[in-house]
Flavinylation-associated cytochrome domain-containing protein (Candidatus Saccharicenans subterraneus), 223 residues
Amino acid sequence: MNQNQLENLNQGKNQNQGQNGGGKAFKFKPFISFLTVFSFLLLAFSGFILYIRPEGSIARWVGWRAIGLDKSGWETVHIVFCTLFVLAGLIHLVLNFKAIVLYLSLGIDKTRKNLPEMVVAAVLVVLTLLVAVWRVPPASWLMEGRAHYKNHPRALRIQVPAPDFEKQSLRRVAEHFGQSPERVLKELQARGLKGVSLESSLEDVARSNQMTPQELYLLIRAY
Ligand code: HEM
């Protein structure tokens, strides 16, 4: 951006400030800029948590939580802040359209345009896209890391016997071990577990007793 254009932009800003009462009024432009930054920080942080979260069924099986939120809680945070970030980012672009166009077309110094930087950035993005599509390093390393967290949470003591096994009723779980459902029911009641019935799911009974489905499964297996 050349010196005259910068000065014109600043003059415009100063005049606006004068009209707004010397800058004391709440200013929409910096508010939107901060909103964009803060929502991006939460978006990136929740994205990091989603990277290290286990796969859906395993997450429920081991009762996975991070900083008090379960898997679907973090997904909600991520999607809500994604929406806020996109909206705030779009408003930010509109409010600063003139400055952004000038910057992109003329560069920050007045001597030359940004053409070489633009070409290098575009080539880098195309190369990164190819690396991701072909699943070669370092994209494959990132996906291997994700698969590791997805399938091997630290709390996993025994693999989920079948997909969504936590939704099985206690009767099915007892039968799965070849045990009498009525005897399992009596054992669990004798232990003082709350909300136990043969038609309740492993997940519901575990939740009512501050246990994970995995812990309850191992308890039943031990009978
Ligand atoms: C700031 C950087 C971001 C990081 C680090 C990040 C990271 C992640 C990760 C690791 C996942 C889970 C992928 C999986 O299931 O294996 C995810 C899911 C997702 N991301 Fe992001 N993300 C970011 C930005 C965004 C943005 C800008 C948007 C929207 C415009 C977005 C929308 C989504 C959606 C819709 C999902 C699916 C959520 C679900 O599993 O239900 N993310 N993200």
Q: What stands out?
A: The chain has two domains: 3-114, 165-221. The longest strand covers residues 65-66.
